[in-house]
Amino acid sequence: MSPDPAPARTLRAATIAGVRQAIAARRTRGPVGLVPTMGALHAGHASLIERARRDCRTVVVSVFVNPLQFDRPDDLAAYPRTLDADLETCRRLGVDVMFVPDAAEMYPQPPACVVEVGRLGDHLCGKRRPGHVRGVATVVLKLFQIVQPGAAYFGEKDAQQLAVLRRMVRDLNVPVEVVGLPTVREKDGLALSSRNRRLDDGERPLAPALYRALCEIRRQVAGGADETAAIVSKAANGLPQDDRLRLEYLELVDPDELQPVEHITGPVLAAGALWVGTTRLIDNVRCEPPRGQAGTGDD
Amino acid sequence: MSPDPAPARTLRAATIAGVRQAIAARRTRGPVGLVPTMGALHAGHASLIERARRDCRTVVVSVFVNPLQFDRPDDLAAYPRTLDADLETCRRLGVDVMFVPDAAEMYPQPPACVVEVGRLGDHLCGKRRPGHVRGVATVVLKLFQIVQPGAAYFGEKDAQQLAVLRRMVRDLNVPVEVVGLPTVREKDGLALSSRNRRLDDGERPLAPALYRALCEIRRQVAGGADETAAIVSKAANGLPQDDRLRLEYLELVDPDELQPVEHITGPVLAAGALWVGTTRLIDNVRCEPPRGQAGTGDD
User: Fold this and answer.
1) Helix, strand or coil, per DSSP, at residue A86
2) Which tens digit of pLDDT belongs to each residue from B195-249?
3) Does domain A11-181 have CATH number 3.40.50.620?
4) Sequence ranges of the domains in chain A
5) How many Cβ contacts (< 8 angstroms) between chains A and B?
6) Do B114 and A114 touch (CB under 8 A)?
7) How high is the pLDDT of residue A295?
8) Which of A36, B174, B175, B238 is 20 to 30 A from A278, alpha carbon to alpha carbon?
9) Could you report the per-residue pLDDT of B58-113, keeping only the tens digit for each?
10) Contact in structure between A128 and A2 (CB atoms under 8 Å)
11) Around Cβ A254, how many Cβ atoms within 10 Å?
């Protein structure tokens, strides 16, 4: 069905010069698509790669656990790394080039110049993880400059990341189309995340609580509730009583500028972070207030 | 002598889409060079354009007085604008494409995402003009993304700008070679600057005082003086006594990180800003301490 047969093999480059060379040879043949990842690939990543495979002649997947976006060294150290499996996934999905640099290749010296994201980093994860959003924007801009793709693919699960990157390419005139794709979920609603594999068997059944709380918020907003404080309070109170759960935040923000919304008059993004044991999970859903007489009752 | 004949005409583009289209048609023919300017072109700019003309198949000159790098609205308003003469200069020098956007084209909304330059912006002009260095880095990154040149040309007169841009392309992996060219000077040593045309006949003879002070510093350093405070104090005291002169700063910094140097042990950048009436002039020279037994007595 695909116009492009799966390539005979997936080239693997560890250096910037190497990946640029590998792509230069292919660039003349047609569009280049980039899927930036931190590895530990799952079905969410696969959906991004499959879309890139359909859109682009050359598909590049980067695997880089970016130290600049981690606020805690223990979190960076514990982040899952499954490179052999990732290679196999990329081969299976017909990825042309994997870019797997180490930290010294990406940051030969501490960067003086970074991308600041202004108020888009003031809330949600940006408020709780100092430097996180700047670190994401900076590494993605670097990857864009290294790979020079026509399009790059990101999951909607990382809503703040996606909004910031859309804004970054607009503000800085970066000639890359940022494509956002729907969050892939387990049957019980849990958003796929590389961090899920750190949940133990006891924690796993608790993990969908965040998505359920977000759906509860969506239901309230669709039903006409418009006071954020009351909406969030009700959803938070509905979380299971369990010592292993700790809600880090649950916020309603406008979808573009990511600023808190107190009174809902249009679409909002409901986003949250929930600790399940020692694992921090994030998720979000878009909420639409009712239009005219009818709510949109949507889940 | 040049392998490229002067083009029949200089294309002028006011929009990002327009300039991208004009360049796309030429990119396949060979390297693209960019000379970013704020207009009011003088012989210093001409030296950059001539070098780009020698290096590149396609030469693009941008003329944009960037509001983001002005800390004072009156300074922005008073900045010289001589577009008709600039067009003529570009035609004469065989420029292929002039990019002349207005502020709404470059900043359709206030940018949330900007380039922060860290400690490279902490001293020299960065210390006195809040947001200036960030504004320069941001607009140049935007121009690099719009034009996608292989090389871009800047004068050494703006030493902090040049150091920051060199660092920016390295830190962010921007695939552009930043070329710095020597400051062009009047016979009396005054560095060419678009701002010079704002000097009146009484002020003009005072203007070389800054360069003379910098040369005095270079002489002291070459002669073995190594205490910055004493060196700078002597040079500042040597400035003409005139009510129209006000020294804004005179600093010695290391040439790469632009951090103040108290005790000189290697090459340093001497840089200053001097107000002459209502006109602010900047300049810099590189200073080398003596090696072995011999000083380098260099002017």
Assistant:
1) helix
2) 999 999 999 999 999 999 999 999 999 999 999 999 999 999 999 999 999 999 9
3) yes
4) 11-181, 194-287
5) 80
6) no
7) 41
8) A36
9) 999 999 999 999 999 999 999 999 999 999 999 999 999 999 999 999 999 999 99
10) no
11) 16
Sequence-ordered list of residues with C-beta below 8 angstroms from that of A209, at least 6 positions apart, any chain: A239, A240, A245, A274, A276
Per CB-CB distance under 8 Å, the chain B contacts of A148 are 175
Q: The domain A194-287 is classified under which CATH number: 3.40.140.10, 3.30.1300.10, 3.40.630.10, 1.10.10.10? A: 3.30.1300.10
Write out chain A residues lying below 8 Å of B24, CB-based: none
Contact between chains at B171 and A116 (C-beta distance less than 8 A): no
CB distance A118–B137 less than 8 Å? no
Determine contact, residues B173/A16, Cβ cutoff 8 Å: yes
Nearest-neighbour CA in chain B from A242: distance (Å):
40
Interface residues on A facing B, Cβ-Cβ cutoff 8 A? 16, 20, 111-120, 137-138, 141-142, 145-146, 148, 164, 167-168, 171-175, 257
Do B11-181 and B194-287 show the same overall fold? no
Rounded Cα distance between B220 and B162, Å, is 25
Q: Residues of B with CB below 8 A from A166's CB?
A: none
* Percent of chain A whose predicted confidence (pLDDT) is above 70: 95
Please judge whether B171 and A146 are an interchain contact, meaning their C-beta atoms are less than 8 angstroms apart.
no
Q: How far is CA B243 from the centre of its chain?
A: 27
- Amino acid letter at A268? V
Question: How far is the alpha carbon of B114 from chain A, nearest alpha carbon, in Å?
Answer: 5
What are the strands, taking DSSP E only, across B177-240?
177-181
Contact B175 A112 (CB under 8 A): no
Of the residues B172, B178, B256, the best mutation for testing chain A's interface (the one with the most A CB atoms within 10 Å of its CB) is: B172
Asked if A175's CB is within 8 angstroms of B16's CB, the reply is no
Rounded Cα–Cα distance for residues A195 and A157 (Å): 13
pTM of the model: 0.94
Q: Where are the beta strands (DSSP E) in chain A?
A: 11-13, 32-37, 58-63, 97-99, 114-116, 151-155, 177-181, 245-253, 268-276, 279-287
